[in-house]
Amino acid sequence: MKILTIESSCDETAAAVVDGNRNVLGASLASQIDTHRLYGGVVPEIASRQHLDAILPVVSEALKEANLSPGDLDAVAVVNEPGLAGSLLVGLSAAKALCVANNLPLIAINHLQAHIYACKVAFDENIFPCVGLIVSGGHSSLYRCSGPIDFTPLGTTIDDAAGEAFDKVAAMLGLPYPGGPSIQKAAEKGDPKAFDFPRPMLHEPERMQFSFSGLKTAVRYKLMGVGKVDYADMQISEQTRADVAASFQEAVCDCLVGKAVQALRLCKMKTLCVGGGVAANARFREKALDAAERFRFKLYIAPPKLCTDNAVMGAIAIERYAAGLFADLDLDISPGLVRDKQ
Ligand code: KG4
Ligand code: ZN
């Protein structure tokens, strides 16, 4: 079996060809980071236009690497939710066109479920049942994952996503986009205990929600105390910048790991799978590993390349193919977070 998977939910245009054993036969990815860096974040309209330019070359490259033509495929799978509307539409339109032209079935992929499935692809172990934690620029969500086509949302963020908070705090500190890697680098020389930032939601173990906007505001007020709050020309020392970065990173990681542990308890589960760009964070990985040892659960975090957006994690389509879960050609996008269809 050979499935072409397409990912265009945010600012990465990606395609991959996978076989029924999750082997990657070909993969291609066009990143837009350099463009969006100019604006300090993803500009949706620009993202969709760049997807338009990149989608066909990226699909061709993945097929070429796999040494296949579209007619050799068994199905085309595409992320249709959640994500930026214009970006999702580009991938979905390309997938539909390929299906119509080559008489192939269409498979819908949920981007968040695919992030969790990246752990299955990376480790090739039986990861289900598990609690799934997705932490990225657009999402901070917890899922009860009973099986590869059986995901139930437990909760999400009530305001900012963790990655979004990284990006915004990095901007406050005058660090480049994307903020996660910049903060991680700055934090290497900082003291994570220098500032005592809040750990929102951790004191409510039954509540499966995150909140990062208050933490972001706490950083802002701390910066107003130690320097000028004109972010473009902030007069704080390199050491203060590093200390704020380290203390903020520590607080976010405590929230993410702490909530995941609470979710494992609530679901009475012993396996945690983590995906999404923020899961590439070295301090997060360290803390999650510590927690896994202390609380005795099995931990899967995909390697950094499979944490950030990619099409290889779209291998989850194999499971839907096997279950006969195909989409109609009138499949629509569903940009919002709440709905979580099978
Ligand atoms: O999953 P992803 O590539 O795209 C979305 O679906 O959003 O995640 C991108 C996010 C950005 O906010 C970026 O700052 C964050 O992941 N990120 C990190 C790291 N690498 C990427 N956050 C913290 N530490 C990192 N090393
Ligand atoms: Zn993502």
Notes on the structure:
The chain is α/β, with parallel strands linked by helices and 342 residues long. The protein folds into 2 domains: 2-115 and 308-322, ATPase, nucleotide binding domain (Nucleotidyltransferase, domain 5, 2-Layer Sandwich); 125-306, Nucleotidyltransferase, domain 5 (2-Layer Sandwich), CATH 3.30.420. It is 43% helix and 18% strand. It contains 11 helices and 10 strands. The protein has helices at residues 33-37, 44-66, 85-102, 111-123, 162-172, 179-187, 213-226, 238-267, 282-295, 304-307, 317-322, and strands spanning 2-7, 12-19, 24-31, 75-81, 106-110, 130-135, 140-147, 150-155, 271-275, 298-301. The strands form 2 sheets. The protein has a 5-stranded mixed sheet. The structure holds 5'-O-[(R)-(carboxyoxy)(hydroxy)phosphoryl]adenosine (KG4) and zinc ion.
CATH architecture group name of the largest domain? 2-Layer Sandwich
Helix segment count? 11
Please provide the count of β strands: 10
Helices and strands: which structural class? alpha/beta
Helix content: 40-55%
CATH superfamily of the largest domain: ATPase, nucleotide binding domain
Q: What percentage of the residues does DSSP assign to strands (E)? A: 15-25%
What count of structural domains?
Answer: 2
Helix and strand run: EEEHHEHEHEEEHHHHEHEHH
- Strand order, largest beta sheet: 3-2-1-4-5
Overall average pLDDT: 94
Give the biggest beta sheet.
5 strands, mixed
Give the distinct bound molecules: 5'-O-[(R)-(carboxyoxy)(hydroxy)phosphoryl]adenosine, zinc ion
CATH topology of the largest domain: Nucleotidyltransferase, domain 5
Unreliable spans are: none
The first-to-last residue Cα distance is 21 Å
